[in-house]
Amino acid sequence: MANWAEQVRELIAARRSDEVWRMLRRAAPKDPTAALELGHLMLQVSWADTQVAVAGDTPEAEHWLRRAVTGRPDDVRAIILLATLLSVQCDRIRDLTAHLRHSKRWDADGTRRAEEAARLYGAALRLDPLSDAAASGLALLSSKQGGGEADEPALTGRFDCFVLEVELIVSNNGETVPRLVVLRDVDQVHRFGACGWHVVAKAVACRYQGGILVARHRESRLSGKSLGRVVDDWQAGRVPTSEGCPLPIGHPVRHKGRILSYGVNGSWMADG
Q1: What backbone phi and psi angles, to 5 degrees, belong to 75?
Q2: Does residue 268 sit in helix, strand or coil?
Q3: Backbone dihedral region of 156: left (phi > 0), alpha (psi from -120 to 50 degrees) or beta?
Q4: CA distance 208 to 216
Q5: Coil, helix or strand for 265?
Q6: Nearest to 121 by CA among 20, 5, 250
């Protein structure tokens, strides 16, 4: 394994987020595996690095995931993550154009991204016909492009995961906007705590086991516990009932009656 990977794990454990980003950005241009790790991390923790840009610039997460797919064309995980990001961007474009009088350029961009995402999901299924993440992601994308709600069969509902309900501070007056983040396991919760936004006002981790909500974890500020530590303590006090099946990377989930994409979810607009 590349030396950078072990160093990144150590830096995340030490919650030295600035060094994590620097390490990955140094390694990513020459190593498609590092590019995949960097794009994946951005998809998990960063709104700004994943959203489509008004100026037409490529979001950084998209840049690195494209680099990963180019360097690892048969890597199903890289393909699914890029398809997931493009699908999420389609949601944001639809949200944006709802507030615009002239949306032709954005509509064309959304169509282009949706078509590419569908091709990528298809490529992932050819490489791995049993991929739940690719099949569910494609079904979700297709239902949204059809203008309706996603069909229930698109989600298997049998996986363990976390949904983080996050409030981001967006003004000096303390105004906040909500974001929802889908993560697959405790390790990703720790990564969010170490490398996520510095403007998080509060975060609640909703724990799902077998698709059923079993706990809600809140950061313990008085005792100085991080959200990841609170989750660890809860898990340590539980008697294991069965071997869980973590959410496949890129798989959407249902939370409070709403279907969410893997990674960061949220409206384009500040009130979303």
Answers
A1: -85, 105
A2: coil
A3: alpha
A4: 9
A5: strand
A6: 250
**The two structure tokens encoding residue 138:** 């494609």
Q: pLDDT of 199-256, one tens digit each? A: 677 889 999 998 899 999 988 766 778 888 888 888 887 766 556 799 999 999 999 9
For 210, residues 6+ apart whose C-beta sits below 8 A from its C-beta are 157, 158, 159, 160, 244, 245
What confidence score (pLDDT) does residue 152 get? 46
Span between the terminal Cα atoms of the chain, in Å: 41
In the CATH scheme, what is the code of domain 3-153? 1.25.40.10
CA-CA distance, 127 to 114, in Å (whole number)? 20
Q: How far apart are CA 47 and CA 85, in angstroms?
A: 11
Q: How far apart are CA 169 and CA 212, in angstroms?
A: 30
Q: Tokens standing for 96?
A: 């944006």
Taking all residues of the chain, what is their mean pLDDT, rounded to a whole number? 85
For 150, half-sphere exposure in the C-beta direction (CA atoms, 13 angstrom radius) is 22
Q: In this structure, what DSSP letter does residue 49 have?
A: T
Report residue 123 as tokens: 């490529």
- Here the contacts of 17-22 (C-beta below 8 Å, separation 24 or greater) are 17/194, 17/195, 20/194, 20/195, 21/195
| Domain positions in the chain | 3-153, 161-265
Residue 39 dihedral angles phi and psi, to the nearest 5°? -65, -40
With residues binned 3-state (H G I as helix, E B as strand, rest as coil), the percentages for the chain, rounded to 5, are 50, 15, 35
94 confidence band (pLDDT: 50, 70, 90): confident
DSSP letter for each residue of 56-85: -PPPHHHHHHHHHHHH-TT-HHHHHHHHHH
Band the pLDDT of 58: cuts 50, 70, 90.
confident
